[in-house]
Design a protein that fits this description.
The chain is α/β, with parallel strands linked by helices. Helix content is 32%, strand content 21%. The structure holds zinc ion.
């Protein structure tokens, strides 16, 4: 009888929370997919959830921008994850910033029930503000990985999601056509707010890095100041 607590303790599954965060195009979903794939190889039971509103590419797959994909389940609320993940060892959550504050307690509950929880999401919104509930989940997580994209203007590591067009809603979905990754220095808050318009060139991340980097380097303070007054040159204000 005295052995029982000891046996229970050693056989108890220990859960934890991992957060993978960063700007858009920083590879968060790819990293989530990589971790879940490795758990699958270890024959662990995995399940990936995403908010039902994110239906950009596929209804039943987590699909990253580079087209690597795993099956996922779209759920309307965070609390549904607790019920649907009952048989899982590893629970992935993609686009976590689109779940409400409930997700924080859901992650805690899952981890305390012995599951490994991997949460991927934007840590900042298009204005550069912390994107709830990611800050709260990062605080209670055991492990936090912050990824960076590449700034399309200067080529440095980017931690901002620059909005190029569209509404002032925090929840506007979109890929290349309405967002691009930028570093702190090149991030343009007025452009994200829609107070001015972007240049028509909707560059791809790869192709624009070099030309934009050189154009920034050649701009003198005087010319960049003048350019910032013209509505067409929002790249570097
Ligand atoms: Zn930059």
């Amino acid at each position: 009888m005295t052995l029982e607590p000891h046996v229970l303790k050693t056989s108890r599954k220990v859960g934890w929370i991992e957060v993978v965060c960063g700007s858009m195009f920083s590879g968060k979903t790819e990293e989530l997919i990589r971790r879940v794939r490795r758990a699958n190889i270890a024959r662990q039971r995995t399940e990936i959830f995403k908010p039902a509103l994110d239906t950009r590419y596929s209804e039943d797959e987590v699909v990253s921008h580079d087209d690597s994909a795993l099956r996922s389940t779209a759920v309307a609320t965070a609390s549904q994850i607790v019920l649907l993940a009952q048989d899982s060892d590893v629970v992935g959550v993609d686009e976590a910033q689109f779940f409400g504050d409930d997700l924080t307690e859901v992650c805690r509950e899952l981890a305390e029930s012995g599951k490994r929880v991997i949460v991927a999401g934007l840590d900042q919104d298009y204005l550069g503000q912390p994107f709830e509930p990611m800050p709260q989940i990062m605080a209670i997580a055991e492990y936090v990985t912050k990824l960076h994209a590449i700034c399309v203007v200067c080529g440095n590591p980017a931690n901002h999601s620059q909005r190029l067009s569209g509404s002032t809603s925090r929840f506007q979905l979109g890929a290349q056509e309405s967002y691009e990754p930028r570093c702190r220095d090149c991030f343009d808050l007025a452009l994200s707010k829609g107070e001015k318009t972007a240049q028509s060139s909707s560059d791809s991340v790869e192709s624009s890095t070099e030309s934009d980097a050189s154009s920034k380097a050649s701009a003198t303070p005087a010319s960049s100041e003048a350019a910032s007054d013209s509505p067409g040159s929002a790249v570097r204000a």
